[in-house]
Specification:
The complex is a heterodimer of chains A (341) and B (525). Chain A has two domains: 3-149 and 287-328, Ribonuclease Z/Hydroxyacylglutathione hydrolase-like (Metallo-beta-lactamase, Chain A, 4-Layer Sandwich), CATH 3.60.15.10; 155-282, Rossmann fold (3-Layer(aba) Sandwich). Chain A has seven helices and 19 strands. Chain A has helices spanning 53-63, 155-168, 183-193, 204-215, 270-275, 290-300, 312-321; strands at residues 7-10, 13-16, 21-23, 31-33, 46-52, 68-74, 79-84, 87-95, 103-109, 112-116, 138-143, 174-177, 200-202, 223-225, 239-242, 259-263, 280-282, 304-310, 325-328. In chain A, the strands form three sheets. A seven-stranded mixed sheet of chain A has the order 7-8-9-10-11-18-19, with helices on one face. A six-stranded mixed sheet of chain A has the order 1-2-3-4-5-6. Chain B has 20 helices and 19 strands. In chain B, the strands form four sheets. In chain B, strands 11, 12, 13, 14, 15, 16 and 19 form a seven-stranded antiparallel sheet that branches. Classes of the chains: A alpha/beta (341), B alpha+beta (525). At the A-B interface, helix 5 and helix 7 of A face helix 5 and helix 6 of B.
Chain lengths: 341, 525
Amino acid sequence: MHPQHWMSVESPGLYCRPADLYIDPMKPVALAVVTHGHTDHAMAGHSHVYATDKTMAIMTTRYGEEMAESTQPMRYGESVMLGEADDPVRMTLYPAGHIMGSAQVLLEYRGSRLVVSGDYKRRPDPTCLPFEVVPCDVFITEATFGLPVFTHPPIEREVDKLINSLQVFKHRCHLVGSYALGKCQRVILALRQAGYHKPIYLHGALIRLCELYQQHGIDLGKLVPVSEIEDKSTLAGEIVIAPPSALADRWSRAFPDVRTVMASGWMQIRARARQKQVELPMIISDHCDWPELIQTIEEVGAKEVWVTHGRENALVYQATQMGFKARALSLLGYEDEQETG
Amino acid sequence: MEDFSDLLEQLYFTGSHNAKSALIIDYLQRTPDPDRGWAIAAMAGALRFDFFKRNAVKQLMLERIDPVLFEMSYDYVGEMSETVAHLWPASASPGAEGLPSLGEIVTQFAEAKRTDVKPLLTKYLDAMTAAQRWALIKLGTRGLRIGVSARTMKQILAKFGDTDVAEIETLWHGVAPPYSDMLAWLEGKADKPDISEEVTFHPVMLSHPIDEKNLEELQPKDWQIEHKYDGIRVQLVSTANGKALFSRTGDDISPSFPDLLQSITEHCVLDGELLIMHGDNVDTFNQLQQRLNKKKPPKKLIESLPAGLMVYDIIADEKQMLTDRTLDERHQLLVRFIERSRSDRLHLSQPLQAKDRDSLQQLYARASDDTAVEGLMLKRKDSLYVPGRPKGLWFKWKRQPKLVDAVIMYAQRGHGKRSSFYSDFTFGAWQDDVLLPIGKAYSGFTDEELKKLDNWVRRHTVGRFGPVREVAKELVIEVAFDAAHPSGRHKSGVALRFPRFHRIRWDKPANEADTLDNVKALIES
């Protein structure tokens, strides 16, 4: 049966009727599958949650042990059967390459296959398995950077900009705005790979998630909470990482001669960087850029593409030009420019 | 060219004035002529020709991308140069081949035949990085905005040459890019360039809006009081080498007003308000608008709407510059100059008399009722003619704006700094139970309010027409404007002059906004 007859958009989010299952719902529901741990996908308060074990760990870190009434961790490639025993929906998770624990969701029902990509990227990321192409009839793709102006440069080049700046502005504290989950750890790893081995200083909101990554065997090198530094003037010439909301906050005023850096895919558009008073924009994204979105649609080869999260119009248009049947799915609750870019 | 592009990139992301100044001075010190002179001209907005038109850039781009994707991208980015910089197909190794110097690029475009411009532009766009493309397009279309105004540039040059900014100001419009003579003088390698007989613009003196405190403190006897006429502020320059009319920003608008210039025979620099005048009678700003931006105005138009100059001040006479005289002295000289002038188009802006603050208030009340003027000007009698906007010398006291409550109907994203924010609003007034658009406003709100408005638009969109969002007819704004005119071009039949946000009435129900009849009642005859 065509997925349009068993999938719909309801007010909590994307809904699979025969399984009574919501994907990344934004209201508490009975049965939820969570693709990854970003707050605009994972919330506390559902009765029963499916997710990868790492996503569960992230949710527990953020929301505590009580984040759901019951949970069922799943491995990549493992399936569960949902709905009526004589008319089941089979659900399987596959790697999405977005952040640690991120997954795509394959739903199979009455002979047709639908994949929800969640958020995903195609660039190498040492903190997660690469995105896996899963053949299907309908592919629901995100489109955060769904415009041809977005082509992300290699992360090495962007991190070099920061390292060069540290050499030019030896006495300025480089305050890097970065989303707490995924981006922060990826930036730290890229700095380490580029040969930066000094301690990196962290805003309090980033510490527990970095610890979690380290518990999962990801070596982030020496990290120091900013709160442990009594004399903030010693942070001249050092890297401090903070969530973007803290950049303009009173918190940052204590640092010596701050140079504001921001790691985000949005930094490609210079006016956006200026609006946030960023002096050194680093274009680093955990999403696909435009060429990668197109590459993925081609490789997945689904007859039908549903587009959500972001600039749907351009990607729907492009997919149609490429010969796919395409439409936009408007999901509420997802800001079109949140800080997870 | 690489250096210039790097400089722009750094300036773009640098907030502080001092840091910008340091970057530019460093560039001037390590860059040879003529490159550095062209860079100055580009940043200060003093380039005198476009290398290519925006439209040529767009056409080249559309040969390389689907037009629908281009439009969507442009709408999102909010700026043409950057949209093209990102969309242009990158070569295998952009920026790897060395580019010619800035001076060479300027020369190549200046000398290129019409048909050669596009191939030349294509060649460079192909070879450049996205940042360099942005720099070239901004340079070539004279659209560079990196927070360095002409005034800032002059201050930086003064610092570079260790001289006073006033020296640069007086010289500025008499020298041309790439400024090799001026830069040599600033470096102490040559004499100051002589510009005395050039027909050039002299930077004008501007006023501040008056506030309650200023008003309470001022002694009327120390001040020259004049009407603030409702035309455009201009400077008329006439020397043995020619005559010209400049806007207050220095744009040469002579071709639109040959009748005024022909009437002048004396050597002078005059500061005044350009108006349509039938003898001594001042016509409306609406009428003046018909004569603006017409490079070859038809004879009939010139005869039916003759241009006149309401003269406020005299900056130079046949003998000398008068900027170091007091307003009192200049005024005496101006009265005599106009008496003797053979022109019938010059009118003296008559000082008004107020013996105390009460009579000043009465003058203001009367000026507010007079539709030919916008309010009063108050100038210290002992003020020298100081270019720029010096503090405490000249004040404008504009009449109160008119206000209507209108309903927001459509919103569009802004450009440049406001890219991505819904900041351009169309608003309407009620005719029975239908709203008719009466104008557009883009200003008058704070950055905080802009964020709230943007958010409101996103949550209240009921339709989309390309980049335009139609919104629920729920939000009332108090619109301030200077005047209402009848209009045949608008369906509502009314056009507002300089509408802007006065207040956002989050609390007011839309059905209590003003009717079109209320708005039309404000039209002045």
